[in-house]
Amino acid sequence: xxxxxxxxxxxxxxxxxxxxxxxxxxxxxxxxxxxxxxxxxxxxxxxxxxxxxxxxxxxxxxxxxxxxxxxxxxxxxxxxxxxxxxxxxxxxxxxxxxxxxxxxxxxxxxxxxxxxxxxxxxxxxxxxxxxxxxxxxxxxxxxxxxxxxxxxxxxxxxxxxxxxxxxxxxxxxxxxxxxxxxxxxxxxxxxxxxxxxxxxxxxxxxxxxxxxxxxxxxxxxxxxxxxxxxxxxxxxxxxxxxxxxxxxxxxxxxxxxxxxxxxxxxxxxxxxxxxxxxxxxxxxxxxxxxxxxxxxxxxxxxxxxxxxxxxxxxxxxxxxxxxxxxxxxxxxxxxxxxxxxxxxxxxxxxxxxxxxxxxxxxxxxxxxxxxxxxxxxxxxxxxxxxxxxxxxxxxxxxxxxxxxxxxxxxxxxxxxxxxxxxxxx
Length: 425
Ligand code: GLC
What we know:
Elements: E1 39-43, H1 51-61, E2 67-71, H2 76-91, E3 99-103, H3 107-112, H4 131-135, E4 138-139, E5 142-143, E6 146-152, E7 154-158, H5 159-165, H6 173-186, E8 190-193, H7 200-212, E9 218-219, E10 224-225, H8 230-245, H9 257-265, E11 269-274, H10 276-283, E12 293-297, E13 309-316, H11 323-333, H12 336-344, H13 359-364, H14 368-377, H15 387-402, H16 408-423
Parallel strand pairs: 1-2, 1-3, 8-11
Antiparallel strand pairs: 3-13, 4-5, 6-13, 7-11, 7-12, 9-10
The structure holds alpha-D-glucopyranose (GLC).
């Protein structure tokens, strides 16, 4: 069941030929408007530090349409808040961001507020993308962004320790709990961590626990509250029990992606839920656990669980100064060549479907086909124009349950109540 082998590997940096890239459909078009010139692109923290070099490729060949990267904080919530402040300034004639690399879960909200503009479908290679990612870029039947990066959660584990103990990596919550509870302390490690600080990462981890148990949070595009179920309670109980019983360390309640990755990479954790970039980082040369780790799909109550679909989409601000250049840059960033770099340099899962079957890449990264499977089976977050409020409620309530301030039963009841209040507003 170990599908990512415990081999350490550095990132393959491909030498690419600068020719051969042809922008498609660069004419002014509905929604994309016209106008060429310099751009700013705002993004959440570039955790693998690759984006600058990708954009340099564009800037070298497009001297009149240079893009300036504005890197915002690592935390999805802080990035979202800063983007919104800027987009609102745009409504008053200010605003610095022409383009935004937005989380997949924000498309509906940004579109519903009119902060980002609809884009013409035929200008972008949507047919070449993995099918679930395109849906995250649409709202009300229109395309409001173009998928750029996708993501699915994995369970990373210390393959060296499990091999020493003669056990397979866990497929179920019971196996995960048992190993985290018994083996981790014997080896002086913490058991299990994910991203449990109250922010978008906790919403993701909570949704994965609920979905894995067979539950849901909202139905009908955010219109119906479905969280009041035994399955949702079981999911929240799994996370709460971990902290109560100590196989989730208390310090994990302060972890975002980077802190949790660091704990695993420093050799302090037996199991970690994180995105594939953490596997690549922990396997890289110089990492204390390089060559000692593996990754499997997230476990669930009776077998593999369900990951949340992560990733980001490229959107164009309503007030973009040069929308035609913005559309051209999006076409560049979603071209096959750049999507390859997103993966090999940025350790981020590309949206282009054919790369997952590229023989050269599969040879170098044997886990690609399974990563594809994880993305294809991942479940999206609720598509709601009030997604920000939905996420805030989930984070607050689940954090209270994990810190023992509220029982899982009470937490599910409160979730149902507070989510219903948001839907009825
Ligand atoms: C990653 C995912 C994104 C998610 C975020 C949560 O960046 O790609 O979709 O919202 O993590 O922290």
